[in-house]
Design a protein that fits this description.
This protein is an alpha/beta fold. It has two domains: about 180 residues, 3-Layer(aba) Sandwich (Rossmann fold); about 170 residues, 3-Layer(aba) Sandwich (Rossmann fold), CATH 3.40.50.720. It has 15 helices and 15 strands. An eight-stranded mixed beta sheet has the order 3-2-1-4-5-6-14-15, sandwiched between helices. Strands 9-8-7-10-11-13-12 form a seven-stranded mixed beta sheet, with helices on both faces. Strand 14 and strand 15 form a beta hairpin. It is globular and about 65 Å long. The chain starts with a strand and ends with a helix. Nicotinamide-adenine-dinucleotide binds next to helix 6, helix 7 and strand 8.
Length: about 375
């Protein structure tokens, strides 16, 4: 198979789909890989590193999209990339289609086979290709929150860990999954008081066993959220309904009970956000203020630490990339129900139920299409 890696073009995005060690595996398995010139330069991987492991460097994204049977990316294709996709071409990347009908329509029109990292599953019911970025974003959420709390960033001027004789900050984490657990770990490490709220008793039980009495676990109800938000210095939004839009758990009305300068980091923003007042921001302009509360809503947080993120992502995606390349997409999808869960759009049909529901379009089970 001919596999193509374009340079990412989203604002401040320096990650890339394949690192040289992944390319080496693909080449050893008999595949050809083309990489766009300078695709890895932002994280210190030059063209020579790809050439050494057998990749061919091409100058433009147009060339990558025109030649490759399968495109491996990181971020959802931007509009000009969507327009370059071809019928029958495999696209393997993050898509986050639920809040993005325009991208969905372009993928549908292209006739491509769009497999989303974020809906591929594993035996434990987890999302193995979302997990590495969630680990990064969860850890970063506390760093970003701590910085936003500084007075020069219009925060309330509170140090997360306090100092002897001065109470630490209260951090409320909504959603105790992968992002939430990593936020809890870093917030605890910085000495904050941590409350984690989840609607899954199993998750709360797990967190309780993991962190013991050093954190407080709370069952998610509107009442509990309202009460804990009111006294929080930092709120991290980390809920997920796989493939669907994030539930709006914090209303604008709830903000009026919070101290001015408190910070809300909405990590769920890539699925539309879990605060009513959230709107996506970029690394260049990460925060804005609503009713005195600092909002940080960067939709590609791991993009700020692209080297760590790219290596972490490749560790998780490589087995699936190899399966798609070695077996061909049809066999790979038919033989792996977890990879099949990643199939969002197949030659103009929406094949993921939650994605189709969120977009209000008709859903076609993938099984019938792949026969
Ligand atoms: N902004 C970014 O750069 C970035 C990076 C990585 C992940 N994310 C996003 O972060 C979000 C969380 O990802 P994750 O990997 O932690 O998911 P996850 O599935 O591991 O965890 C989500 C948790 O939310 C809980 N939840 C669902 N509904 C809830 C509710 N009403 N109240 C309380 N808890 C609820 C679930 O029980 C689960 O424990 C996703 O939207 C993901 O796309 C964003």
């Amino acid at each position: 198979m001919l596999i193509g890696v374009p340079k990412e073009i989203k604002n401040n995005e320096f990650r890339l789909g394949l690192i040289p060690s992944s390319v080496r595996e693909l080449v050893a398995n008999g595949h050809q890989v083309i990489v766009q010139h300078d695709a890895g330069i932002g994280i210190g991987i030059d063209d020579a590193a790809f050439e050494q492991v057998g990749a061919k460097i091409v100058q433009t994204a147009e060339e990558v999209f025109a030649k490759a049977d399968m495109i491996i990316k990181v971020k959802e294709p931007q509009l000009q990339e969507c327009r370059m996709l071809r019928s029958g071409q495999v696209l393997f990347t993050y898509l986050h289609l639920a809040p993005d009908p325009e991208q969905a329509r372009l993928l549908e029109e292209s006739g491509c086979i769009a497999i989303a990292y974020e809906t591929v599953t594993n035996k434990m019911g987890g999302l193995p290709l979302l997990a590495p970025m969630s680990e990064v974003a969860g850890r970063m959420a506390i760093q970003a929150g701590a910085t936003s709390l500084e007075i020069t960033n219009k925060g309330s001027g509170i140090l997360l860990g306090g100092v002897p004789g001065v109470a630490p900050a209260k951090v409320v984490v909504l959603g105790g999954g992968v992002v939430g657990t990593n936020s809890v770990r870093v917030a605890m490490g910085m000495g904050a008081r941590v409350v984690v709220i989840d609607k899954s008793l199993e998750r709360l039980n797990h967190l309780d066993l993991q962190f013991g009495s050093r954190i407080m676990t709370v069952y998610s109800t509107t009442d509990a959220i309202e009460r804990h938000i009111a006294t929080a210095d930092l709120v991290v939004g980390a809920v997920l309904i796989p493939g669907g839009s994030a539930p709006r758990l914090v209303t604008r009305d709830m903000l009026k009970n919070m101290r001015h300068g408190s910070v809300m980091v909405d990590v769920s923003i890539d699925q539309g956000g879990c605060f009513e007042t959230s709107k996506a921001t970029t690394h260049q302009n990460p925060t804005y203020i609503v009713d005195g509360i600092v909002h940080y809503c960067v939709s590609n947080m791991p993009g700020a630490v692209p080297r760590t993120s790219t290596f972490a992502l490749n560790n998780a995606t490589l087995p699936f990339v190899l399966a798609l390349a070695n077996k061909g997409y049809k066999d790979a999808l038919i033989h792996d129900p977890h990879l099949l869960n990643g199939l969002n759009v197949y030659k103009g049909k929406y094949t993921h139920k939650a994605v189709a529901e969120a977009l209000n379009v008709s859903y076609t089970p993938a099984g019938s299409l792949l026969q």
